Amino acid sequence: MFDLVLKGGEVFDGTGSPGKIADVGIADGMIVEVGDLPVDDAAEVIDVSSLAVSPGFIDMHTHSDFTLIADGRAESQVHQGVTTEVIGQCGISCAPVCSHAAIRQVAPWFTEKAKHRKWLGFGEYLDVLEETDLGVNVVAFVGHGTIHRAVLGDEMHAGEPDDVAKMAKLVDQCMEEGAGGFSSGLEYFPGSLAAPDHLVPMVEVAAKYGRLYATHVRNRDTEYDLGFTEAMSTARQAGARLQISHIQPKFGAPGHAMEHTLEMIDIARGHDGDIAFDVIPHDWNHTLMAAILPKWAQAGSLDDILKRLANPEDRERIKANPKPMWLIVKARQWKDIVLLNATENKDLVGADFEEIGRMRGVDPYDAVLDILLEEGENLMATMWSSKSFRNSDVELCLSQPECAVISDTVAIANDGVLSDHVGSLSGYGWAARFLQFYVRDRGIMSLSEGLAKITSVPAKRLGLRARGQLKAGYHADICVFDPAAISSNATARNPRRYASGIAHVLVNGALSMRNGKRTSVNQGQVVRDFQRAG
Length: 534
Known about the structure:
six-stranded parallel β-sheet
């Protein structure tokens, strides 16, 4: 009757309800029954007594668009119980593109080492992803920045009405071909050029299909209130459901910013706004180093950017930028900013910029621009991280039932073609750290409540069919772990350590981890079919 029975664990269904001791019966990749099950005719029985049995974790905000093409195993995610990823966030997606050469420009964490078939359209990209052995299920959003580049290239304007109409038509085509939602990144070029007038027609397309509009808002520091209200206004005008990505305010925001933002959301909900949000479970904020450049310095080709970085006059203009993306840079708190990922400067990863400047005998800001210049063609893969979030803000968000927990990172591995890549300080341990630090150690919520934030909450918001809960008729995406032992082992100096405390992981009924060890099985699927979610 059963291909596999997980016997005697504490089963959490993912809804936030308390766990209960039960067996889980699996057949043909699906959960068939949960309860006190006979095992005589089961093909395999695994004793999971004393362990927690949960739906597999859903990471609803990642940038693994290209890393999954390069290495679909998703080792950093599977090792911490993740079974589904949502890519194409912050306005950045790998498709659609006008030429094969353009893939490099829009693909986050691009590497020449990857061997893959090329694509143009969004559906074709999903086809290529589907041809990859995937360790996780994948939902792909289409990004505004990529749509903009497909229509306008690197032009320094957001588009005339005819251009915007072309963009909206392209978004519609992507939705037809399987995009799970639409995203924008309004602090990044070219998203920084767009106003609601430009975005609303595209967001209306997402609304037509009942899919989410996820946004990295324009500002989360001094003008946080303008950034968040712009996002709500755009979604309201389009009639769309809004997901505010990594909502916690950044360095420079007033102390009341998080509380005020939640108040604004409550008011909007009172007028039928459908708004939810997510948080990164730590106080470090990471992004592309190139994002510190003002818009004019990011325009054009990669060669154009590198020429400006090499020009002394342009460098002085860059450093004089009165409103950089990170105000912590303007405040020159270099000791709280670390190099996270680099290709030509791997030896500096984990060092803070006060230290790097001292090592090089230059001002830390010049060290930043020097490193970007030295990275050359890998400039857009160069990352840094800063201590820009408040734990109190994260905890306040976590107290809200609609808040999901995300990684904002990439699926990578400490071996193979991605072994030198890093996505964030918690890329190898975001889910483990959430359950370890906020749930177990700080007791911000119960284990069952915490699990809901990385299972059923994102599944419902995304409109995933039969995923995110542990119940009969659902896909057998399951994580079995030890609540007392689950831990993140990644540090700034050693960010590529896998999490610990995970016993077994199943993706679509197949064991991708068994007894704490990764198997060679990769049964992830590309998800293209969605229900209208709430």
